Amino acid sequence: MSARLTRRGLLGAAAGAGVAAAAGGGYALGSEEAGGPPAVVPFHGAHQAGIATPAQDRLHFAALDMAGGTGRHDLAGLLASWSAAAARMTAGRPAVAARADPLSPPGDTGEALGLAAARLTVTIGLGPSLFDDRFGLSAHRPPALRRLPPLPGDELDPARSGGDLCLQACADDPQVAFHAVRNLVRLARGTAVVRWSQLGFGRTSSTSRAQATPRNLMGFKDGTANLKAEDRAALDEHVWVGGDGPGEPAWLRGGTYLVARRIRMLIEVWDRATLDDQEQTIGRHKASGAPLGERDEFAPLRPDRLPPASHVRLALPEANGGARLLRRGYSFTDGLDARLGQLDAGLFFISFQRDPEAFVRIQRALGAQDGLAEYIEHVGSGVWAVPPGARRGGWVGETLLA
Amino acid sequence: MLPTFIIALREGLEASLIVGIIAAFLRKEGRPDALRAMWAGVAVALVLCAGVAVALRVIDEQLPQRGQEGLEAVVALVAVAMITWMIVWMRANAAGLSRRLRADAASALARGSAWALVAMAFAAVLREGIETAVFLLAAFQDAADPAPAGIGAVLGVVAAVGLGFGIYRGGVRLDLGRFFRVTGAVLVLVAAGLVSSALHSAAEAGWIAAGQRQALDLSGLLAPGTVPSALVTGVVGVQSRPTQIEVVGWLLYAVPMLLFVLAPDRVRAEVRAAGAGFAVVAVPVVLVAGIAGTGGRPAAGGGGDARGDPGRSVAVAVSAAGCTPAHLRLTSGPATFVVTSHGGARVTEYEVMRAGRIVGEAENLAAGVSGRFSLTLQPGRYALRCPGGATSAEGTLDVTGARRRAALDAGLRHGLDSYRGYLERETATLVDRTGAFVAALRARDLARARREFAWAREPYERVEPVAESFGSLDPSIDARVNDVPRGRWTGFHRIERALWVDGTTRGTRALGDRLLADVRRLQRLTRTVRLEPAQVGSGAGALLGEVSKSKVTGEEDRYSHTDLVDFAANVAGARAAFAAIRPPLARRDPALRDQIDRRFGVVDRALARHRRGDGYVAYTALGRPAVRELAQDIDALAEPISRAPARALEP
Fold first, then answer.
1. Which of A20, A349, B24, B85 has the fewest Cβ atoms within 10 angstroms?
2. 3-class state of residue A99 by DSSP
3. What is the DSSP letter of B263?
4. How confident is the model at residue A19 (pLDDT cuts 50, 70, 90)?
5. Contact B331/B211 with Cβ under 8 angstroms?
6. Interchain CB distance below 8 Å, A105 and B636
7. Pairing relation of β-strands B615-616 and B611-612?
8. What's the whole-number average pLDDT of chain A?
9. What is the pLDDT of residue A267?
10. How far apart, in Å, are the Cα atoms of B535 and each of A100, B478, B645?
11. Do β-strands B312-319 and B333-341 pair in parallel, antiparallel, or remain unpaired?
12. pLDDT tens across B444-464, in order?
């Protein structure tokens, strides 16, 4: 009798302990997630991540060219292995699954081991130069995908412009973002070479209403009137390629276009402008971010209240035939401009739009009349088609190449 | 240094003892003519030994490993026979010497025994000298740096002669009978050690595989590498871990012979003679028994079996407990492990590790699914690992016996032989071209020296990792200005600076002589370097790393700007090294081999664009895009090459 009781008691105690442990464990796990955005952004989906994703703090951007002698098969293989590695890295795992073998080079370079996924996203783009006869893609080039025309304010360096492919890695941890591009470039060794690359610190846009508007290196809030992830209808209209508009190929449906501009700020000149000059140039109050004459940052913009040459007014959709961009840029600095002994810093501007023409139209207006043009110069440029997202087991670019 | 000292001391001491005994005897007998003849005989013997040493060296180079061991075994046995005869002769005559000397010794001597003694001295020195030559051969081959080894040998001989002299100076006044008895006992120990060595060498030659289990472990008493251990091993011939047959042979010889030597004269001569006879017969009997016990055929797969014989099968298992059995004892040589699973889903892997590296494994084991892998076991301890096992997730494998050369497959063996030929050709070319370069320096011909500079470097850059493996040789030949402390800068680049920056050959004479001596030494050392497949394969990657580090940046030849010649040479060397592992890679991963071949082609074409005449344009003539292209092409080639050795050499 007593033995049975003891056994039952034990069983009961064990069950109780198990339930308590499960509850405690679940609570512990759950509480990790609560209180902040989830640390892992899924790689797979209808759209590539890193576009509507709330902007992370750090950027590593690279433009690559396919190596000589490569063909369509190499390109497809590269995109497939990139997709597989990106899916692993964005989940917080090493780029390549490999057992530590002392006689082989390590599969993953290792500097992100032990670091959390940090909301890493990897976004892959295909440049206009890819659609020549090397890979048999010339018939599939979207008419909208062309090298950007010369624009007012351009001082473009060809070595910092263009590229057959682009990689955008964003994360909250700079080491994670760096590690992602480094490992993808390593996977591409011999198939594609890096043309140029850019590190970005500090986001200069909000892409979600949940984010506070950051400041760019001019000290102004940047991204107040940006397209936000929550504006689904607006995103469908202005960002995602529908595949049904004129000249929109079916393989790009669910994708978009990425425009990148390396905009150097003439920091020394800007810093000696008066506060009034600065605010008139931008069109917002510096401290609050509110439009001139308003008090609230998110007060609607009224063109008649803004100086004609102010940046914000010239960029208004109404002034540009309704053109709207999803801006997702980052501040950068690359040390010193050795020629002049001046800071080489500014905004690495990135925007996503359904048609690069939207960007061209806005930049034409800005470049011609924008007061800001006195303080900046565009030194790098590129445009890429961003294919739709990969489904599980698939890869980015499959819709075009498979 | 110690091994050669001990060898020279031991062999020299034996010879000195014998010569000293005989010299003392002859002197005591007042036979200066015989004494002079004896010294002459010794001198002749020494000369003959030198000749034999040279001949042995030539033969040794021609023989494969097993043949060398066989030669050692034969020499050791011959030495045992001679010493035994010496001891027996001495013992038989020791007691009688004192009496006979006082009696009609002089007439006996005059009749001819003195000449027998002279002949004996001659034979002793000859024999010891030949043994020394054979043993020193091996010692020099193993030595990383010949200078200390050579010094050790000389010191050993000097000490031996001094000791022998000292002993027998004293010996002149000694009671010869007792003296011979004591020295006889010492010689018995020496001869017993030779018996043991002979059996050891016979085992390494593959004649004997029986009785190879370790009988004793004296390493606690004789820690290898310490002076007592070296002395005992060197003089008395006892290894720290003798095998059964070595111990049996030692005892069967030493015990009866010691009895023979040390037994008082009271013991009947017949008994004593029987003891000596027993010992003398025992040794060949043990040897024959050892060979017969092996089944009359050489030990399976030992030393360089080109068929890649997998050797014996070792059946092991994994179970819920882990590795089963947890502790294994095996003899060295090739082995194929067949791993079965006794059920249980927890343990699915069986790994054999050495020094933290996995050298063999079987994975995905399940009930009914077995795995197998082959490796060549070397003496020592391995670790076994069966992750997930309850009680024996870790185990041990002790391997006894002689070191075995890994059973290489035929393709790999051929590849390594070809690469060795490549190394020998390139180092010979290096010596020739450096000679031409140095001749131009000596002739103070600046223009010719400048022309010869890059050409002399080309063969060096093709084999640079091999040079680096010898330690101080690469800095002496190839250091750039910031690589070494000021005042110690020698070699090609030091001369380069004189030729291009100072515009003169002045002051380069000593540097040129030293450079020539260094490359000659490199050529000699390269002949003896051991080539392992993994090391050769990774040498290809090392050569491409050289390009990335200093040739593509123009840092290597910063005065003459002939970096592209070095660049092309590094790539050519990488190609030759890769060729050694290309056949096994072709079997295991043809896609990787193809990729490497293609990318070699890309690099070749990129370099060819910068040819000029039979050389290349100066580095400074390359534009930035060209430099960038070369750098990226080298990266593209080096990446798959870095993966090739592991893939090619997977078990």
1. A20
2. coil
3. S
4. low
5. no
6. no
7. antiparallel
8. 88
9. 92
10. 19, 22, 8
11. parallel
12. 999 999 999 999 999 999 998
A13 token code pair = 């105690």
Among A103, A186, A196, the strongest candidate for a mutation testing the B interface, having the largest count of B CBs within 10 A, is: A103
Structure tokens belonging to residue B311: 């050797």
- Please answer yes or no on whether B636 and A101 come within 8 Å at the CB atom: no
Find the closest chain B residue to A193 by CA distance.
B632
* Contacts for B222 with CB less than 8 Å, ≥ 6 apart: B228, B229, B232, B233, B238, B240
Residue B325, SS3 per DSSP = coil
Q: Does A88 touch chain B (CB under 8 A)?
A: no
> Does A68 contact B639 at a Cβ distance shorter than 8 Å?
no
Q: Cβ neighbours of residue A369 under 8 Å, at least 6 residues apart?
A: A308, A309, A314
Query: In B529-623, which ranges are continuous DSSP H helix?
Result: 533-546, 563-588, 590-608
Are A295 and A288 in contact by the 8 Å Cβ rule? The answer is yes
CB contact under 8 A, A103 and B642: no
Q: Cβ–Cβ of A105/B643 closer than 8 Å?
A: yes
SS3 A118: coil
Whole-angstrom distance, CA of residue B247 vs CA of residue B237: 11
Supply the pLDDT for residue B144: 44
Please give the ipTM for the structure prediction. Answer: 0.72
Partners of A69 on chain B (C-beta within 8 Å) are: 602
Q: Helices (DSSP H) in B176-323: which residue ranges?
A: 176-204, 227-231, 244-262, 269-293
Residue B306 has pLDDT above 80, yes or no: no
Q: Distance between CA B257 and CA B276 in Å, rounded?
A: 5
**Beta carbons of B636 and A67 less than 8 Å apart:** yes
Q: Do B635 and A101 touch (CB under 8 A)?
A: no
What is the pLDDT at residue A61? 98
| Element spanning A97, H or E | none
DSSP A102: T
Tell how far CA B57 is from the center of its chain. Answer: 13
- CA-to-CA distance for B239 and B192, rounded, in angstroms? 12
Those residues whose C-beta lies under 8 Å from the C-beta of residue A255, and which sit 6 or more positions away, are: A47, A48, A240, A241, A385, A386, A387, A388
Coil, helix or strand at residue A378: strand
Rounded to whole angstroms, how far apart are CA atoms A188 and A195?
13
pLDDT band at B106 (very low <50, low <70, confident <90, very high): very low
The encoded tokens of residue A50 equal 């890193």
User: Of A125, A160, A74, A87, which is closest to residue A258 (Cα–Cα)?
Assistant: A125
Nearest to A103 among B632, B636, B646 (CB): B646
Residue A247 near chain B (CB below 8 Å): no
Q: Are B327 and B366 in contact (CB under 8 A)?
A: no
Verify whether the Cβ–Cβ distance A104 to B643 is below 8 Å.
yes
Say whether B635 and A189 touch across the interface (CB within 8 A).
yes
Q: Do B357 and A102 touch (CB under 8 A)?
A: yes
* Sign of the torsion formed by the C-alpha atoms of B220, B223, B227 and B231: positive
Cα distance between residue B145 and residue B142, in whole Å: 9
Q: Are A220 and A348 in contact (CB under 8 A)?
A: no
pTM: 0.60
Per-residue confidence at B301, pLDDT binned at 50, 70, 90? very low
For chain A, the residue count is 402
What distance, in Å, lies between the first and last C-alpha atoms of chain B?
A: 38
Range of weakest confidence among A180-184, B79-83, B631-635: B79-83
Q: Which residues of B touch A190 (CB under 8 A)?
A: 595, 599, 635-637, 639-640
- Spatial separation of the C-alpha atoms in residues B492 and B473, rounded to whole Å: 12
| Residue of chain A whose Cα is closest to the Cα of B636 | A190
Average pLDDT over residues A116-136: 95
* A-B C-beta contacts closer than 8 Å: 31
DSSP state of B369: B
Distance from CA of B642 to the nearest CA of A (A): 7
